[in-house]
Amino acid sequence: MDLMLKGRRALVTGSSSGIGEAIARLLVEEGASVVVHGRNLERAERVAGEIGAAGVAIGELSEDGVAQAVHDQALAALSGSVEILINNAGGNSEGNTAKAPAEIPVADFMSNYKANTLGAVQLCQLCVPDMVAANFGRIVNVSSAVAMQPNYMGTDYSAAKAALNNFTLSLAGSLRGVNVCVNVLTPGVILVDGLVRFGRMKFGDDSLTAEQVNDRLAAEAVFEVPPAGRFGMPRELAMVAAMLASPANGFITGANYRVDGGQTRGLN
């Protein structure tokens, strides 16, 4: 199937590894001109070189003024406006995953909000005017299953992702009559590089492939296993992102696409 992405200009934040890298790689394979974003120049340039990206944009999006700098770098690398924006950058304060909501410092709520919500909001605000003027744009904001089904720990992260979901729906609703589609992509547990490394260390075997790690983590119920019987692979998430980013998608907007193996079943 031709996703009609050839020649389209895309910025994928947080794409120097993991889910973002998988999305950037697939968009390039489909013919898009892609800017790889990350916080580490060497790592971003390595990925950009491997996949044949148009260039890189570097910056910590949780910091004031950085979204504008990243946007400017993307425009320079693409020699034009951003037509496809994938907001994947973010992260979790891992030290808070074992803390109850009332125990998490307020500063950590603000830090997670800046990292997981405000950076995406600012990039949307920077990119949307050009999308509206061109009567074409696709925005995919990568959220998390915990935004809809919080586990009562790590609430600073889940609350920030819930805010991102809310913003996405509001933005989509505001863009009436223009060919700009805005959607949320919600992963469950995805076997990114860090989780593969964890599995290899846990099972004491550095030769295990990602698929073998997936099988063993599921078989031994190291994490709660979704109805699919395994965890997701980055490429599977990238396939849905590419579909939502495609010009072929002109009618899906304000939607939440769950790629979680059924983890958040029954929830919108």
TrEMBL record:
GO terms for biological process: monocarboxylic acid metabolic process. It holds the Pfam family adh_short. CDD domains: SDR_c (cd05233). PROSITE patterns: ADH_SHORT (PS00061). SUPFAM superfamilies: NAD(P)-binding Rossmann-fold domains. InterPro entries: NAD(P)-bd_dom_sf (IPR036291), Sc_DH/Rdtase_CS (IPR020904), SDR (IPR050259), SDR_fam (IPR002347). Belongs to the short-chain dehydrogenases/reductases (SDR) family. This is Short-chain dehydrogenase.
